[in-house]
Amino acid sequence: MGLFDTIRSVFGTSAEADATRDADPEDLFGMSTAYLTMEAELDFRPLGTAALCFSSVDSTDFADTVDEVEAILHAGEEETGTGFRRHRDDHGYHWVVLDDDDPEDLVTSVHFAADTFVEQGYGSRLLAAVFGFERDGQRAYWIYSFRRGAYYPFAPAGDHERDQRLEFKLETVLDGELDVEDDEGYWYPLWPDAPGGHPWN
């Protein structure tokens, strides 16, 4: 998921101290309409995958919270067919990865998972929610930073290069529909563990 110092900077104490607004899992529902705009105006189709990234803490209570999140997602899997899996990246961050062809189911599942962490007092462990899109082989992601309480676009173009023109285009089209981070210094890339992968793998 990129260089450790970058991750620590975007998701760690500096971002929390510089936060412009409180994070709110309800913000995630903005993606329920944003995916329609992404497809209608930019021809980017949802990947059918989204993910929630969090940092762990060594406590029984936190482990119970993670178990509760998994129980909720298991119930959702039976009801909506939204599959999920757990992943730990090369830097020790944890991911809940969700798969569903219905973007609204993905948004709802990510929200339920995030809201459970918050309700159990572990909202500070939430790092990011990531929603993926694709157009003619080009990938683009909307990342919600829980430490900043805002979305920002990430458009990888190669192993460690970014398509900044596309990122600014995404901002122009979606700003107002999503609460977009207005300080581009916080538009941090989330590079995958392996070239060609997604931020969550």
Description:
The protein is of the alpha+beta class and 201 residues long. The chain has one domain: EIF_2_alpha (Alpha-Beta Plaits), CATH 3.30.70. Helices cover 37% and strands 22% of the residues. It contains six helices and six strands, in the order αααβαββαβββα. The protein has a six-stranded antiparallel β-sheet with strand order 2-3-1-4-5-6. A hairpin with a 5-residue loop joins strand 2 and strand 3. The longest helix is centred in the middle third of the chain and has 21 residues. The chain is globular. The N terminus is likely disordered.
Salient structural properties:
201 residues; alpha+beta; Alpha-Beta Plaits; 6-stranded antiparallel sheet; 6 helices; disordered N terminus
Provide the domain count: 1
Percent of residues in helices? 25-40%
Query: Helical region count?
Result: 6
Please give the CATH architecture: 2-Layer Sandwich
Largest sheet, in brief, is: 6 strands, antiparallel
Quick rundown:
The chain is an alpha+beta fold.
Give a topology summary.
Blueprint: H1 4-11, H2 13-17, H3 31-42, E1 45-54, H4 60-80, E2 83-88, E3 94-99, H5 103-119, E4 126-135, E5 138-145, E6 150-154, H6 164-174
Antiparallel strand pairs: 1-3, 1-4, 2-3, 4-5, 5-6
